[in-house]
């Protein structure tokens, strides 16, 4: 992306949009895109502005928000590709979807590493020139394994994607990367939380299966939802066939969520997200 992106949220009041767009216009910059949302329960106002970059405007924006400490903002400059770390276990479809979309230039990030609790996908990952780290993980060695992952991640990852990574991360680990860990859960949450959601769906006789991408919190599968989708099925599908067709909806949902996160479109508000610019 060759533009600057300003995202901000504040208690609602008349004139916020005008003040911010005037800052940009006064600096002679064109606005490519603007999206905003007013939450009528909290009266919080959210805005995302995409504009032609200018150091003068960037400085004016920093001065404005320094003068308005009650307002929260992020200013993302052009060509600042975020570093994404992918965590994977045995199922490789979601990881491969991201690798191929990044390789195709669809998702504007750099994949800085893949971390897995299995060594299975080393050759597959390294053939794309991506660093692969095998970090064994189980309840007994969880603390040591997470410290090993932190040592690998610090300074090398702006956010993490759990691409069907099947180990439960500790609250301490999650707090360190608050709202920087995206997980793809293979059900239409809040249905079928926890392990083996396709088996749960099969046993329930559902007519729709789904996938949910969410930020990871200490509440298992309970974090703010970023994207979801569903696929129609029927009584003829076996449990294994649900798993196979489900991969496609998982891939589509995860790619949307990662693309939006990478383009600074997702804002967290309570335990929900606001996705601007889609
Ligand atoms: N802290 C979190 N860690 C992880 C999450 C999460 O939401 N919060 N998501 C999982 C991936 N996942 C679903 O998408 C998932 C993986 C594994 C299990 C599971 O085995 N659950 C067992 C209990 C395991 C345990 O307590 O260690 C069960 O429910 O019986 C559930 C969901 C990745 N990490």
TrEMBL record:
Stretches assigned to the Formyl transferase N-terminal domain: 83-258
Q: Which residues does UniProt mark as catalytic?
A: 221
Q: Cite the EC number.
A: 3.5.1.10
EC primary class: hydrolase
The record's catalysed reaction(s) read: (6R)-10-formyltetrahydrofolate + H2O = (6S)-5,6,7,8-tetrahydrofolate + formate + H(+)
Keyword terms of this UniProt record: Hydrolase, One-carbon metabolism, Purine biosynthesis
The pathway that the record names for this protein is:
Purine metabolism; IMP biosynthesis via de novo pathway; formate from 10-formyl-5,6,7,8-tetrahydrofolate: step 1/1
Q: Name one GO biological process term.
A: one-carbon metabolic process
| Gene3D superfamilies recorded | 3.30.70.260, Formyl transferase, N-terminal domain
Q: Which superkingdom heads the taxonomic lineage of this protein's source?
A: Bacteria
The cross-references to InterPro entries, in alphabetical order and at most eight, read:
ACT-like_dom_sf (IPR045865), Formyl-FH4-Hydrolase_C (IPR041729), Formyl_transf_N (IPR002376), Formyl_transf_N_sf (IPR036477), PurU (IPR004810), PurU_ACT (IPR044074)
Molecular function per GO: formyltetrahydrofolate deformylase activity
Entry's NCBIfam families?
A: PRK06027.1, PurU
Protein task: Catalyzes the hydrolysis of 10-formyltetrahydrofolate (formyl-FH4) to formate and tetrahydrofolate (FH4).
Q: Which family does it belong to?
A: Belongs to the PurU family.
Protein name in the entry:
Formyltetrahydrofolate deformylase
Q: Which organism is it from?
A: Abyssicoccus albus
Gene this protein is translated from? purU
């Amino acid at each position: 992306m060759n533009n600057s992106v300003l995202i901000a949220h504040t208690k609602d009041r008349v004139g916020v949009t005008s003040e911010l767009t005037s800052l940009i216009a006064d600096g002679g910059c064109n606005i490519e895109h603007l999206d905003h949302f007013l939450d009528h329960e909290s009266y919080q106002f959210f805005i995302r502005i995409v504009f032609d970059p200018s150091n003068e405007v960037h400085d004016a924006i920093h001065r404005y928000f320094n003068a308005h400490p009650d307002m929260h903002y992020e200013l993302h400059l052009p060509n600042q590709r975020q570093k994404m770390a992918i965590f994977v276990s045995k199922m490789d479809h979601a990881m491969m979807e991201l690798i191929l979309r990044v390789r195709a230039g669809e998702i504007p990030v750099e994949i800085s590493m893949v971390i897995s609790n299995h060594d299975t996908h080393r050759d597959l990952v390294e053939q794309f020139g991506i660093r692969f780290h095998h970090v064994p993980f189980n309840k007994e060695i969880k603390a040591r394994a997470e410290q090993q992952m932190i040592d690998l991640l610090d300074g090398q990852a702006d956010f993490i994607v759990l691409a069907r990574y099947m180990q439960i991360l500790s609250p301490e680990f999650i707090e360190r990367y608050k709202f920087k860990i995206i997980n793809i859960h293979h059900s239409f949450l809040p249905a079928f939380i926890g392990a083996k959601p396709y088996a749960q769906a099969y046993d329930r006789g559902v007519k729709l299966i789904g996938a949910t991408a969410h930020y990871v919190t200490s509440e298992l599968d309970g974090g703010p939802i970023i994207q979801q989708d569903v696929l129609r099925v029927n009584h003829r599908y076996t449990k294994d066939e649900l798993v196979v067709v489900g991969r496609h909806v998982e891939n589509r949902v995860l790619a949307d969520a990662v693309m939006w996160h990478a383009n600074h479109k997702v804002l967290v508000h309570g335990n929900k997200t606001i996705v601007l610019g889609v």
